[in-house]
């Protein structure tokens, strides 16, 4: 997949190395804010609601695994471990379900993932096009600079 979006990969590599220009392009030059959700309140969450959240997270983790989204699967599994611990502390028993999870529900979650991935790919293609256009505009100047540097080196020799 990387080879399909070389300019996006290059941009993200530069930003991960601290390039101010790349961070500015991504809108990250000033860091970012994240609004954390409020803490879990067991007084406002019924046993059934917590069980539903566990099942929904199981669907999410399984859909992510089946689609090869390892980071999403890992995050969902970690969240599920926290929910299972909370469940066992609140209800003094381990959570379990006697029936297999619904395949249709899993398919719906996978479909939602794929739709989100398609929107993400559209956005990445737009960034790829913009970055490729920037590179094309800068290429003649970069070649000229490289040519001048080589000429200077030859004269020194």
Structural account:
This protein has five helices and no strands. Helices cover 72% and strands 0% of the residues. The chain has a domain at 45-97. The two termini are 44 Å apart. By secondary structure, the protein is mainly α. It has helices spanning 6-16, 20-25, 47-66, 70-91, 103-156.
Structure characteristics:
157 residues; 5 helices; mainly alpha
Count of beta strands: 0
From the alpha-carbon coordinates, what is the Rg to the nearest angstrom? 24 Å
Please state the average pLDDT score. 89
Task: Note the main sheet.
Answer: none
Can you give the helix content as a percent range?
over 70%
Strand content: under 5%
Give the ordered list of helices and strands: HHHHH
Number of helices: 5
Distance from N terminus to C terminus (CA atoms, Å) equals: 44 Å
Summarize this structure briefly.
The chain is mostly helical. It has helices at residues 6-16, 20-25, 47-66, 70-91, 103-156. The protein has a domain at 45-97.
